[in-house]
Amino acid sequence: MELDGKVAIVTGGGSGIGQALAAALAEHSARVVIGDVDEHSAHAAAAAIGTAGGAAVALQADAATTEGINALDTLAAGEFGPVDIYVANAGITGASGIGTDSDWDRILAVNLRAHVRAAELFVPQWQSRGSGYFVSIASAAGLLSQIGAAGYAVTKHAAVGFAEWLSITYGDDGIGVSCVCPLGVDTPLLDGIRAETDPGARAGAQSILQSGDVLAPSEVASATVDAIKDNRFLVLPHPQVLEMYRHKGSDYDRWIAGMRRYQRALRAT
After folding, report:
1. Separation between Cα atoms, residue 228 and residue 215, nearest integer Å
2. Transmembrane ranges (predicted)?
3. Structural contact between residues 225 and 10, judged by C-beta atoms closer than 8 angstroms
4. 148 Cβ partners below 8 Å, 6+ apart?
5. Which of 214, 234, 246, 248 has the fewest CB atoms inside 10 Å of its own CB, making it the most exposed?
6. From the CA atom positions of the chain, what is the Rg in Å?
């Protein structure tokens, strides 16, 4: 996909990967709508793009809700035109351990249902036009797992699965899909995990920090933009994730046993 003149929505675009992606898309002459639950950060990110000569507007919106997604679509249509690219970036880590019913309701809404609701709105539009692009910001946890946090591990697996299904089902309709699965990225989300006092959460944080270099959000954004331009599905900013994934699939029981040993070692530190 050529990005020049395209209209993109980026959720969770006020900070972290979302902010970096919004800036990267604008640098490639896309016109960007930034959504975030934090109104100040959303408008600050849009203002920074404007200062750099790009085109961006912002809106406080909860991308986990149909109302929030519709509001972003309405803003995009009014300011720039029909949406070409939707970046489902907003995400949360959720509770450590198994979690409660309310914990599951929230993390499923943000990390999965937000993607489904966006696709419900935009896929029919893109089918009628013969083009469109959906970007799922998932996690290496969606290919591997996440020590300490069931909700995060499960919803990121689900996000990867939904992105796969979208690509299989609508790829022949001109709709591209990219699924981004990094390890550690220097974002407020990772800062929140680092600050956890729960032993399971601390072990999860250490597993992320020890698994590979912590990348800058701009590095993930650059890899993602390249994938959009190439219409490439799997985006691995940490290349070693592919070998980890292959190791998992080659002998599942051995991999689970290894993860248990690793978890015991983390909890002992």
Report:
1. 20
2. none
3. no
4. 96, 97, 198, 200, 201, 202, 203, 204, 205, 207
5. 246
6. 18
Q: For 186, how many CA atoms within 13 A lie in the half-sphere containing its CB?
A: 8
Distance of CA 172 to the CA centre of its chain: 24
Out of 152, 170, 252, 262, pick the active-site residue.
Answer: 152
Q: Are 149 and 97 contacting, i.e. CB atoms less than 8 angstroms apart?
A: yes
Residue count (the chain): 269
- Render pLDDT for 143-200 as a digit per residue (tens, 0 to 9): 999 999 999 999 999 999 999 999 999 999 999 999 999 999 988 776 666 566 676 6
Give the pLDDT score at 196.
66
Residue 4: φ, ψ to 5°: -60, 120
Structure-block tokens of residue 166: 């979208």
Mean pLDDT of 97-101: 96
Domains of the chain: 7-238 (3.40.50.720)
Q: For the purposes of burial, counting CB atoms within 10 Å of the CB of 25, is it exposed (0-12), middle (13-18) or buried (19 or more)?
A: buried
One-letter amino acid of 156: K
* 252 tagged catalytic: no
Furthest C-alpha separation in the chain? 56
Kindly report, residue by residue over 109-159, the tens digit of the pLDDT.
Answer: 999 999 999 999 999 999 999 999 999 999 999 999 999 999 999 999 999
pLDDT number for residue 201? 65
Q: Left, alpha or beta for 170 (phi > 0: left; psi -120 to 50: alpha)?
A: alpha
